[in-house]
């Protein structure tokens, strides 16, 4: 809940004597930066102050009391839907996504989530603007259906860079891509990954089973050691969840410095 303090006119000496803390407003607002308090100098002509107050209420980016890695990120999950995955393992991947999502504050002015599935083709399951609550995102994840097909990871990275991240590139949130794959791509992954990095997208590579470690490292952002994850079994994805969340927060703090 964002609380705005609107004060009208100056207090009388009698009123001041009734107040224990004269700087109450400074302590009560979530940020003492002048945004969450508004002073109207007199009771006369108060209506002319409605518009500037409404403009404050509509300044979405400033409405966040503090920007953190939990409320100021765009996270896209690029998931391998190739034939080698299988239905059961695909559901484990969806469970991984859901568990990561649960850590973030998803609102229309907070964190945003997108999911894209790829084989030789790409399919946006939902974009950053589709769901504005955590509950709807989680429902959207559970509604995803397994595609099955080949593995063109490089083309998928290019697709996400141009079609998912480009529309939000100039926004205030920091951009992260979590890529999950269980095998080797049939196309070049280095060029598309480099282009994504240059576009300001931080990539985490999550490999399962037969995914080549060299490819995972080539796709991941620097430093490679903290952006590359691997598990031999799909059931091991659960243990990676807290590591991904911590890594996103660590990178977010690095962005802010």
Form type: elongated
- CATH homology group of the largest domain: von Willebrand factor, type A domain
Q: Roughly how much helix do the residues carry, as a percent range?
A: 25-40%
Sequence stretches where pLDDT stays below 50 over 5 or more residues: none
Order of helices and strands: EHHEHEHEEHHEHEHHEH
Please write out the topology.
Elements: E1 5-8, H1 13-17, H2 24-28, E2 37-40, H3 50-57, E3 73-80, H4 87-101, E4 112-118, E5 122-126, H5 134-142, H6 153-165, E6 174-181, H7 190-198, E7 201-208, H8 213-219, H9 224-227, E8 228-231, H10 237-256
Parallel strand pairs: 1-2, 3-4, 3-6, 6-7, 7-8
Antiparallel strand pairs: 4-5
Organism: Micrurus lemniscatus lemniscatus
Pfam families: VWA
Protein name: VWFA domain-containing protein
Word description of this protein:
Pfam families: VWA (PF00092). It comes from Micrurus lemniscatus lemniscatus. InterPro entries: ECM_Assembly_Org, VWF_A, vWFA_dom_sf. There is one protein chain. This protein has 257 residues and is α/β, with parallel strands linked by helices. The chain has 2 domains: 63 residues, no CATH class; 181 residues, Rossmann fold. The chain starts with a strand and ends with a helix. Helix 6 packs parallel to helix 7. It contains 10 helices and 8 strands. The mean pLDDT is 90. The strands form 2 sheets. The protein has a 6-stranded mixed sheet with strand order 5-4-3-6-7-8, with helices on both faces. The protein has a two-stranded parallel sheet with strand order 1-2. The chain is elongated, with a radius of gyration of 23 Å.
């Amino acid at each position: 809940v964002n609380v705005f303090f609107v004060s009208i006119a100056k207090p009388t000496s009698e009123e001041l004597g009734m107040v224990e803390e004269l700087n109450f407003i400074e302590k009560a607002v979530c940020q003492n930066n002048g945004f969450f308090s508004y002073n109207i100098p007199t009771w006369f002509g108060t209506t002319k102050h409605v518009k500037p107050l409404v403009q404050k209420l509509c300044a979405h980016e400033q409405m966040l009391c503090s920007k953190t890695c939990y409320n100021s990120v765009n996270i896209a999950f690029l998931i391998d839907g190739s034939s080698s995955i299988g239905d059961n393992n695909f559901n484990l991947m969806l469970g991984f996504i859901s568990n990561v999502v649960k850590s973030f504050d998803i609102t229309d002015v907070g964190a945003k989530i997108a999911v894209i599935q790829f084989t030789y083709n790409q399919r946006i399951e939902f974009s950053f603007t589709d769901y504005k609550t955590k509950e709807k995102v989680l429902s959207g994840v559970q509604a995803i259906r397994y595609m099955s097909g080949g593995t063109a990871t490089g083309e998928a990275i290019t697709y996400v860079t141009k079609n998912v991240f480009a529309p939000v590139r100039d926004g205030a949130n920091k951009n992260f891509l979590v890529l999950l794959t269980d095998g080797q791509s049939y196309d070049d992954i280095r060029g598309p990954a480099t282009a994504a990095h240059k576009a300001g997208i931080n990539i985490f590579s999550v490999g399962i089973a037969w995914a080549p470690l060299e490819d995972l490292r080539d796709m991941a952002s620097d430093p490679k050691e903290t952006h590359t994850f691997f598990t031999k079994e799909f059931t091991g994805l659960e243990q990676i969840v807290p590591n991904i969340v911590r890594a996103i927060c660590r990178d977010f703090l690095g962005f802010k410095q």
